[in-house]
Every structure is written in C-alpha cells, then in structure tokens.
UniProtKB/TrEMBL annotation:
Residues 200-244 form the Flagellar basal-body/hook protein C-terminal domain. Keywords: Bacterial flagellum, Cell projection, Cilium, Flagellum. This is Flagellar basal-body rod protein FlgF. It comes from the Bacteria. Residues 5-35 form the Flagellar basal body rod protein N-terminal domain. It is found in: Bacterial flagellum basal body. Belongs to the flagella basal body rod proteins family. One of its GO terms (cellular component) is bacterial-type flagellum basal body, rod. One of its GO terms (biological process) is bacterial-type flagellum-dependent swarming motility. It comes from Luteimonas salinisoli. Its main location: other. Residues 85-146 form the Flagellar hook protein FlgE/F/G-like D1 domain.
Length: 249
C-alpha cells in the first residue's frame, strides 16, 4: 500500500511540473523566435536499505523543440529570421554571452542595437553593437550591418560592423531562467555562422503548437486527477484495514 501511494504521489507531482512547462509554452505562443520547452517523466528506483520497491516518477527536462517557427514577411530592416541552428548573440543580465532567435530588433535612442526584450546585440568581437545616426539601415545575410549616414546619399552606404551569429546544434545549448540559451560547454566557444545565416525583413514566430499544447494540458489534468484518486483510494483502503485490525483485536 505504501508503495502504491508513493508512486501515485510522485506521479502527481511530475504531472504538475509538466503542466507548468506546457503553460509556459502557451504563454509564449506569440513570442518571436520562441522554442517550445519539452518535458517528460522517467522512473527512478529509490536507493537505500531493504527491498527496492519504491519507484519515483521524475519530471525530466528534455530541452527544447528546435523546429523553425512560421515565417512572416514584415519588410522591416530590423526584423531578421535566422537559418536552422543559428542564434543571435546577446549580452545577458550577468554580462555574459547568451543566445536567442528573437529577431525583432530595435535601436534605442542612444544608438544601441537591442532585442525586443532590451538585450544588447553583440558584434563578432563580443562587444555591444552601436548604431550611429542614420537614415537607412541594412542587415546582410552574413550579419553585416550597413548604414547610410544621416543627411548623406545612398552612395555612402558603408559597413559599420557584423553581428555575432553563432551556429549551434540543439544539444550544445540549454535554456536559462531568463529564457536565453547558453553554451553547455563554455570551454568550446560556438563558431560564427557562415555567409547565409539570416534573412532581413522576415520574422520567425514561435514554434509552439497552441492547439496541441491545449490538448496536452487536458491530458495532464486528467492524469493528475487519476493519480489523486489512487491516493484517495489507498487512504480509504488503509482506513478499512485499520478498522478490521481493531475488530480482530
């Protein structure tokens, strides 16, 4: 009886944690470049003395869905869509380097190139990218940023820098609590992307399947209810057994 209650309890806990993951995905269904988080459960035998009969249901973080999201043509030169397994390098809150596929960029009043969340974009040297006053801006497929200076003609178009766009397979990255990706092996820096790393004027949407996530939420809710019922039935059986023992005494 104790074993059944333990398994049901840990299963209910894992279901709640999985619901949190699905809720987070649904909340970001409209976030540019967002990659859906993946979650699963696995069994874990509890170590210790005695008979190994207790099995813990563990919630497992399986990373993220690396599938490219839907593409939307915007015509905005500050919107960029990255090729598969390519990421924009940004400066995280701790000053370190992190990565995102959110390509809806902006220029602050002081000329800093940032993401929609305010994270500074880094250039190929790892420094925050600054944009001088300009009347036209262009981001090339290799990440080079060119401008026509304010008050000048189109013939003065010139390159001012290159964005740091890294190429990384999904297993090389892990999502942090701030939603940004980080290199799982800092001792091996990620390589700069090639000449065909991004497309300007196009924005990648979230790859969250909203309808599928809603169905998953319902399944997890029913699974949680079933596990709670098992706990309740186990408690009822334990009380009935205690009553029989008292009568027998």
């Amino acid at each position: 009886m104790d074993k059944a209650l333990y398994v049901a309890m840990t299963g209910a806990r894992a279901s709640l944690q999985a619901q949190g993951t699905v809720s987070h995905n649904l909340a970001n269904a409209d976030t540019a470049g967002f990659k859906a988080a993946l979650a699963n459960t696995e069994s874990f035998r509890i170590p210790g003395t005695g008979h190994a009969s207790r099995i813990d249901a563990m919630h497992v973080d399986q990373g993220f869905n690396s599938k490219v999201g839907s593409q939307r043509v915007t015509g905005n030169p500050l919107d960029v869509s990255l090729q598969q397994n390519h990421w924009l390098a940004v400066q995280a809150g701790d000053g370190g380097e992190a990565y995102t596929r959110a390509g809806n960029l902006a220029v602050t009043p002081n000329g800093q190139l940032v993401t929609a969340g305010g994270r500074p974009l880094l250039d190929e040297n790892g420094n925050p990218m600054a944009i001088p006053p300009h009347q036209a801006l262009d981001i090339g497929q290799d990440g080079t940023v060119s401008i026509v200076p304010l008050g000048e003609g189109p013939q003065t178009l010139g390159v001012i820098g290159r964005l740091r766009v890294v190429e990384a397979a999904p297993e090389r990255l892990a999502r942090g609590l701030d939603g940004l990706m980080r290199n799982t092996d800092p001792a091996q820096p990620l390589a700069q992307g090639g000449d065909d790393a991004l497309t300007a004027g196009v924005l990648e949407g979230s790859n969250v399947d909203a309808a599928g996530a809603l169905v998953q939420m319902i399944q997890l809710q029913r699974q949680f209810e079933m596990q709670v019922k098992i706990i309740q039935r186990g408690d009822d059986n334990a009380q009935a057994a205690n009553s029989l023992l008292r009568l027998g005494g």
